[in-house]
Amino acid sequence: MFVAPPPFDILGAEFLSSYHRYADSLFRCYLESQPHRTITCDNFRFDLYASGEYSKMLETEWEGE
After folding, report:
1. Which of 3, 24, 44, 64 could pair with 39 in a Cys bridge, judged by C-beta atoms 3.0 to 4.6 Å apart?
2. Is 22 within 8 Å of 1 (Cβ atoms)?
């Protein structure tokens, strides 16, 4: 929002108490104005494990070392 932090006395009380709303709105505007790639199964792939399953997998891997 600012290139450099403004002096504290320039900012109003409403702005300071609602800063997150302004920041969220600006970030949403930024995201909508930028080109982006749609994420699908074809272009974004990763393995997903449940924590118990992953722990077992690590345990098995570490036992082999």
Report:
1. 44
2. yes
